[in-house]
From TrEMBL:
One of its GO terms (cellular component) is bacterial-type flagellum hook. Required for morphogenesis and for the elongation of the flagellar filament by facilitating polymerization of the flagellin monomers at the tip of growing filament. Forms a capping structure, which prevents flagellin subunits (transported through the central channel of the flagellum) from leaking out without polymerization at the distal end. Belongs to the FliD family. It comes from Thermomonas brevis. InterPro entries: Flagellin_hook_IN_motif, FliD, FliD_C, FliD_N. It is found in: Secreted; Bacterial flagellum. This is Flagellar hook-associated protein 2. It comes from the Bacteria. Keywords: Bacterial flagellum, Cell projection, Cilium, Coiled coil, Flagellum, Secreted. Residues 11-108 form the Flagellar hook-associated protein 2 N-terminal domain. Homopentamer. Its main location: secreted.
Length: 444
């Protein structure tokens, strides 16, 4: 029959405590090494993440100077109560225009005759066409032909197709209002009725009783005597780089539209680049700090990567410093940039292309800096590779912990086997000792 045993009972030794202590002593050096390595690795992963984020922000700020982003903006100014508003991009040419809003684009709006709310107008099929679009049907079921039923059927079956139905409850009864979702002649509504009991014919645009509240009218606007017709009151292609929003028709009355240079937006964009550049430099400086008295060392202290990146970026600035200085940019001792706003304004007034010539996609500095940033934060860049290497190290640490757990488990089993054997042997020796003692006592 099997017997139950418990290590230590026979010998009096605290086997569990001894085994635990020995395993812990064996484990501690490896644990300490892995804990230190993991702490350092996590700190470095975080540090490179902070630097990569700052460098990505710098890349985004630099990309704003691509194409026409490096040119001064434009500001559109219109006359008082002009009947339109305007905005301009850097593509607009500086100049003055005379604009007349002859007519606004309006949406086609139709109205039925008033009937009692419970009146069954009819059933069958209503066929709608919006402008030159594809015709579509709305089915009105028998017994569901009140104006409210028809409204619900139209809004459900014709959702997103260009027509909206509403009910106005007046003193004389309910009135169905049908409105095109498109302004201008392109949104003209055409409605036909067929099938059913024939009652829906009152809602047909030909032969029905619908009245027109608003015509499908196009906008008409003249610029310096040149006429433009549009189905929309929002015109983006009338004047290059200028967007007009027509708000009120004032036939025969022209109002001024002045398009002038607006360097303020370009200055803001340049300040954004400076802020991003300084943030990137400060991030690298913080993470690579050597530390010392009353100063904390950075997670990348002693790592050459941040210092190499800072040096290359400062060299890029230095190589184009004369051009930066002309724009009012200055460098501090620590390599950060600042902008003299007044000097910038004067420089842009003299040469509107100065920023584009320095930071644009075809500019020498712009191309060099974009190349540097790609080398650092691109998929195969220096920072990306360092982050991947640290991630691999973290995986290795995790695997080493798994291996350590397995090795300690085997060691614990070995210790337990040895002390169990010792416990058994000591129990046997104690039994033999007791037997001898008893035998000697009996003999005497």
């Amino acid at each position: 029959m099997a017997t139950l045993t418990s290590a230590g009972i026979g010998s009096g030794l605290n086997v569990e405590s001894i085994v635990s202590g020995l395993v812990a002593a064996d484990r501690k050096p490896a644990d300490d090494r892995l804990n230190a390595l993991e702490s350092t690795t996590k700190a470095q992963i975080s540090a490179f993440g902070s630097i990569t984020s700052a460098m990505s922000s710098l890349s985004t700020a630099l990309d704003k100077f691509k194409a026409d982003g490096g040119l001064p903006g434009r500001k559109a100014t219109v006359g008082t109560d002009a009947g339109f508003t305007a905005s301009a991009t850097s593509k607009a040419t500086v100049g003055n225009y005379s604009v007349t809003v002859e007519a606004l684009a309006t949406a086609h709006k139709l109205q039925s005759a008033a009937v009692a709310s419970a009146t069954q107008v009819g059933d069958g099929t209503l066929t709608f066409q919006v402008g030159g679009g594809t015709a579509f049907n709305v089915v009105i079921e028998s017994g569901k032909g009140t104006l409210a039923n028809i409204r619900d059927a139209i809004n459900k079956q014709a959702a997103g197709k260009g027509v909206t139905a509403t009910i106005v409850h007046g003193d004389d009864g309910d009135v169905l209002t049908l409105t095109s979702d498109k302004t201008g002649s392109a949104g003209a509504l055409s409605i036909g009725a067929s099938g059913g009991n024939g009652g829906l014919s009152v809602l047909a645009t030909s032969g029905g009783t619908l009245t027109q509240l608003s015509a499908a009218q196009d906008a008409v606007v003249t610029v310096d005597g040149i006429t433009r017709t549009s189905s929309s009151n929002h015109l983006t292609d009338l004047i290059d780089g200028v967007t007009l929003d027509l708000t009120k028709a004032k036939p025969g009355t022209g109002f001024s539209l002045d398009v002038g240079a607006d360097p303020a937006s370009l200055k803001d964009t340049l300040q954004g680049f400076i802020t991003a550049y300084n943030a990137a430099m400060n991030a690298m400086r913080k993470q690579s700090a050597a530390g010392g008295e009353n100063a904390t060392a950075g997670a990348l202290s002693g790592d050459a990567t941040p210092r190499a990146i800072m040096a290359s970026m400062r060299n890029a600035i230095s190589n184009s410093y004369a051009d930066f200085a002309k724009l009012g940019l200055k460098t501090a001792v620590d390599g950060t940039l600042s902008l003299d706003g007044s000097k910038f304004d004067s420089a842009i007034a003299t040469n509107p292309s100065a920023v584009k010539n320095l930071l644009g996609d075809d500019a020498e500095f712009g191309k060099n800096m974009r190349g540097l940033l790609q080398n650092y934060i691109g998929d195969d860049g220096m920072l990306s590779n360092r982050s991947k290497s640290l991630a691999d190290r973290q995986k290795s640490i995790t695997q080493q912990r798994t291996d350590l757990d397995a090795r300690m488990e085997r060691l614990e089993k070995a210790y337990r086997a040895r002390f169990t054997a010792l416990d058994t042997m000591m129990a046997q020796l104690q039994g033999t000792s007791s037997y001898i003692s008893q035998h000697l006592g009996t003999s005497s």
